[in-house]
Amino acid sequence: MTTTKDDARLSPILARLRDAALAYPEAVEEFPWGDRVAKVRGKIFVFLNLHEGKLVVTAKLPQSGDAALLLPFAAPTGYNLGKSGWVTARFGPKDRVPEAMLLEWIEESYRAVAPQRALRAKEEGATGKGAGASKRAGERKKAAAAGENAAVKKGAAASEREGKKAAAAGGKAAAKKGAAASEREGKKAAAAGEKAAAKKGAAAKKGAAAKKGAAAKKGAGVNKRAPGKPMAPAKPADPAKRAAPVKTGAAETKAPQSRSRAPKTKTVRAQSVQPTRSRR
């Protein structure tokens, strides 16, 4: 295994990955062919090396291998190991190293290679060590849930206040709008009433003027006859209403005037003349 001056940045990352791999049950470190490897029951489950200034990590990924090969820094492992699901990742000194993902690769590879007894021991150890952590995690979850509930209640109260304010503002705006609309409607109704009253008054005046003109025309036709038109003959007087015979000496008698509106006419009655004796 060769080293370069760029190992100063990558070495701490390699050390953390090595410690994580050797923390698994029955895991041991060996250096076959000059490479650092982690084994379980004699089987390699991860290669961890610095080669030519690069960090090189090789793991067996039966579940996530296809997705891992889509990454730009990953490639199938040589020596036909890639056909069995082995994937190799290489990182330069300036590359960002996804340590969390590499730790997941190491665990997946350990589970793919380790025997069932080692896996059971891992599960039991994880259960025993994680009891206190689980309890603390549960307490943290409860505290977080309580905090979230308090925040939700506070937010609900604030939303309710804001809603009431908005409703009050909306009610005022609606009242103002309704008052303005009522005022406009009242003005329109008053204007319509005034127009109707004006039309009615004009019609009444027109009707009165028409009646007055018709009466005036009728009176003028009765009192005045057209020039050149002969006077209408007087109606014969009723014999019963005739005046008594006029005595001798009366030149003329006048008949009683007719009550009709016809023009006054004079009727000349024949004088009753007694026979005179001739003087001899």
Descriptive account of the structure:
The protein has helices at 7-22, 65-68, 99-113, 116-223, and strands spanning 27-30, 37-40, 43-51, 54-60, 74-76, 86-91. By secondary structure, it is of the alpha+beta class. It has a six-stranded antiparallel sheet, covered by helices on one side. Mean pLDDT is 74; it is low at 130-134 and 243-256.
Secondary structure: elements and pairs:
Blueprint: H1 7-22, E1 27-30, E2 37-40, E3 43-51, E4 54-60, H2 65-68, E5 74-76, E6 86-91, H3 99-113, H4 116-223
Antiparallel strand pairs: 1-2, 2-3, 3-4, 4-6, 5-6
Helix pairs in contact: 1-3
| Helix content range | 40-55%
What global shape is seen?
rod-shaped
Number of helices: 4
Q: What does the radius of gyration come to?
A: 67 Å
Structural class: alpha+beta
Question: How would you sum up the major sheet?
Answer: 6 strands, antiparallel
Q: Gap between N and C termini, in Å?
A: 208 Å
Count of extended strands: 6
Would you summarize the structure shown here?
By secondary structure, this protein is an alpha+beta fold.
Which structural traits does this protein have?
alpha+beta, single chain, six-stranded antiparallel β-sheet, 280 residues, rod-shaped
